[in-house]
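fyi for ur records
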Amino acid sequence: MANMTEEGGWNTIESDAGVFTYLIEELGVKDVQFEELLSLDAESIHELSPVYGVIFLFKYVGEKPSATPRDGSFDAAASENMFFAAQTIQNACGTQALLSVLLNKDHEGVELGQTLTDFKDFTQGIPSDLRGEALSNSPPIRETHNSFARASPFTLDPSLRPPADPHDSDLYHFIAYLPLHNTLYELDGLQPHPISHGPLSPPPAASDPSSTRDWYSRQFAEQVVEVIRRRIGRYGESEIRFNLLACCRDLRLRAQETGDVALLDRERAKRRNWAWENALRRHNFVGLIGEVAKGVATEKVKDGSWKEWVRGAQTRAEDRRKKGRGGDEMDVGE
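which gave:
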């Protein structure tokens, strides 16, 4: 069995606030977290301010290369003044999207840590395709990314992995939206350049710095919601598989600064839950399940109830089949 990390491959990670938050912390980023947005509205984004950007997950439908994007406009010159990398390998788009936000926000007080600072300095001034190659071949970033993938007893040598099929119904993609230089940008590693969705509306004259920051924060929230709604509008009404994560300042710091004890307790409890869920993701339960199954079967054979137990299981499976449910399916609430 090939070791994915040793062979240079990237595993799939979930679009989950706890995964992304702990991933960037292990890379050395401080005082930043991700928060899942359950409602696509500007107020939900703005109330998390400062928001450095948002990560959007959607079902990818292959699009033919074009000189113009379907929404917004390519800004080739912008890549000279921001971090923008082409995606050159499968399964890296989640980490690439979050880095597209963070590596463009160090001038706003985001502490990147040594690993990402060195990576940004190393890739400064090189083309986006080489930045993508540098990211794909960065051992510390790849290993941290892979450490948050769900454990599996089966791995595939990356050299044997088939190329991504753009028509695969289970193919998903991450992109980043962020305000930079008072402009709303979309950073998608599958596109040739950053996509500009226009400048953020300027604040009223004679605004103080605090009011100006709040103004631009609100303008970003309002404009990015409209852009994402237009993208969602390209899909049929039955498509609901989208996910949106906000990259914001650690909410525990806000709670401490404002003396909001209830918020601080909620955020600390959330972190404990995230840590537990991430630990479960890293554990391979196949061996445990196998041992439990063997133990149960042994006991059933010993007490003579094995055949009756098997017949009962077969009956229940047949009942589920007749009702239109496969024996290995589970109910999923809409």
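The CA atoms of residues 252 and 267 lie 6 Å apart. thats all i got for now
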